[in-house]
Please model this.
Amino acid sequence: MYTALGLNDKEQCLREHAPLVKRIAHQMMVKLPYSVQIDDLIQAGMMGLLDAASRYDEFHGAQFETYATQRIRGAMLDELREADWLPRGLRSDMRRIEVAISRTQQKLGRSPTETEIAKDMEIPLIEYQQMLQESRGAQLVYYEDFYSEDDDDFFERFEFGNDDDPMDLLTNSQFKAELMHAIRNLPERECKLMGMIYEQEMNLREIGEVLGVSESRVSQLHSQAVARLRSWLKG
Model:
């Protein structure tokens, strides 16, 4: 309950700001795998909204929606961490795709098409696309990348040691320059998609409308773009 905005009870708070919770949930879903249910995110976000309402102080100097957004996102991330939402097979499938992209790109001297990647993996195109769709939530950097014992070290190119702080690499100028170069070299549609997701924070439906494709197709393109970027950075 909070009085700074003239709201008298929790029901009114939920009623007025439920659209904010839903908007944030749909923005996050584009970066999460299909094992995550939108209703679970919304429920966690509602709890974050109520927590924001009980803690908000008009004298903090921030607008309530700005403050509530932080609390809502935090509650959703806590829910994801507790639920252990990352499927075990996700990283394995994405690793196979990354290897195929790297191998095919070296062979062709350009960014390979989906058909060419699927052919290299010796699987039908529809199976490859399904793998991409199920891998929604693929990330550019994983915790395991910093502490992997594999010979294929993701960060080996950047002379980053296991004893260093991961944030040191993510703010490293060389890493950022390589990443920006890799994004610019994505196929045009994938480059545009990444901007809509990470800069404009558009959701799957909005992106699909701009690109003229389905939401599932947006998921496929996002997973493939992430795989291309990881392949480039490891290259």
